[in-house]
Amino acid sequence: MNDPLQQLHDIQLPEPISTWPIAPGWIILLLLVLILLSAGIIYLRRRQRQNQWRQAVRDAQHQLRLLNEDASFKQQALIIIKQALLQLGHQDGLSLYGQSLALRLHQHIREPSLIESLQLDSIYQASIEIDRAAWCEAIQQLSRAKPIKPIAKPVPEAKHGI
Questions:
Q1: Rounded to whole angstroms, how far apart are CA atoms 92 and 89?
Q2: Cis ω on the peptide bond leading into residue 21 (within 30° of 0)?
Q3: How much is the pTM?
């Protein structure tokens, strides 16, 4: 007699599914994550560089408050302000004085009365009385200011021959 169980064969399983090559959706997701991670690192490095000079200005301002002599206070405060202007994108920041310095400060400090209280026209006169609080406030506002956008170079005009 034939046993029906003898006629049964083992079930053959299909080949295991390979994980490679990865589906295109996973490749796109991986690339997107890498791009976002790179952008985040670049953003954080730029922000760290910006805040580095701001911290240096704050440290210099703290040292400035410790100076007792008016002449050395004026000199150090002026150096800090000019360096801050240089860091904010004004290439001529170190060579500015008087009215030209005041005009540059107006781009970052919105209070005209504060800039007037700095008495920039008479800064190099030894007998002038200075307002230390105004100088410290101006430095603090400059440390919070945003850099100016670089000015695009003008495109030279094409010469037309006649």
A1: 9
A2: yes
A3: 0.56
DSSP three-state, residue 94: helix
To which H or E segment does residue 50 belong?
helix 24-65
Q: Which residues contact 79 (CB under 8 A, 6 or more apart)?
A: none
From residue 60, how far is each of 13, 43, 74, 152 by CA, in Å? 76, 26, 13, 32
- How far from 9 is each of 4, 14, 48, 107, 116, CA to CA, in Å? 11, 15, 70, 88, 100
pLDDT digit string (tens) for the chain, length 162 residues: 678 888 888 888 888 888 777 888 989 999 999 999 999 999 999 888 878 877 877 787 777 777 777 777 778 888 888 888 887 887 887 777 788 888 888 888 878 888 888 777 776 666 667 777 888 888 888 877 877 765 445 555 556 555
Terminal alpha carbon distance of the chain: 114
User: Which residue reads 């860091």 in tokens?
Assistant: 87
